[in-house]
Amino acid sequence: MHVLITGANGFVGQALANHILSQGRVGESKVSRLTLLDRQFDEPVADSSLLDLVVEQQSGDLADDQWLKDTLGRFPMDVIYHLASIPGGMAEKNDELGRRVNIDATMTLLESCKAQTESTGHKPVLVFASSIAVFGTMPDLVTDDTPLKPQMSYGAHKVVSEVMINDFSRRGWVDGRSLRLPGVLARPPAETGQLSAFLSDIIREVSQGHTFVCPMSPQAKTWASSLPNIVENLIHGAAVEESKLKTTRTFTLPTLCFSMADMVDAIGVVYQQKANELVSYDPDSMIENLFGRFPPLETPAADDVGFQHDGSLNQLVERALLK
């Protein structure tokens, strides 16, 4: 099996690649080749001579259509994880770059899948990392039938990609699965354009006994999952049989809904810190409107095909800092 990951040098991409390298499998299928795509890589992959698979890092710009087509056409693809994106804040500042990466590169991937299917008869699986940003303004309860009302270009780009992946799957050109990821914890400290970075920062800082000013109020509610949980769901997303995808190709992943006060309490319990004394609150109206108004969530379609959340907030907080 040949697995290709876009955005492989990112937070989730690195974790997914490391999981595949450690297991050598996606589901029950053995991986023989792993191709990692990103603009650059922080460090070379582990010595592939010690592994029972071929690993390649391909550095390039996904906005460069010809480079992407050439790279995708080198070897037949079995599973593609499309994780690369221009995130919320950055996509707002640079509209053209956001569209070129978030929409145009996705279309190039889909066209490459179509070309492979038509020329060889071998239809690749495409697992697309969508986002809960597609919902935008939410009702009192989010379900599989909730209308999509994205508030930012990033969410709009994800909606466009979901629709096209569904259409290419309908036509038999790709076996697509769009997974709407919630906030993923805990991201390392870095300037990535992620407006939700404070959700990672609060766990990392308070777990070490450091003070933290939270940009949302104690009662503000959000959704999040740990990085290990997201990796498990991505692996499952590629492994689940196409015959089980009866009514939809798009899944809002099960995740936990909790208040910031709940999170602070969980950090205190898990890391044995006086968290309530370490955290103060200085709500930012924009941040709270984007990330602190989340209602309860029901995900029956995802539940039915085996996707899962962390189980408890304490477990999420504990798993968030696992290496």
From TrEMBL:
Coiled coil: none
Matches recorded under Pfam families: Epimerase (PF01370)
Protein keywords: Carbohydrate metabolism, NADP
Record keyword Cytoplasm present: no
InterPro entries according to UniProt: Epimerase_deHydtase, NAD(P)-bd_dom_sf
Domain NAD-dependent epimerase/dehydratase, residue spans: 3-211
Keyword NADP: yes
Position of the signal peptide: none
Protein known as: NAD-dependent epimerase/dehydratase family protein
Source organism per UniProt: Marinomonas arctica
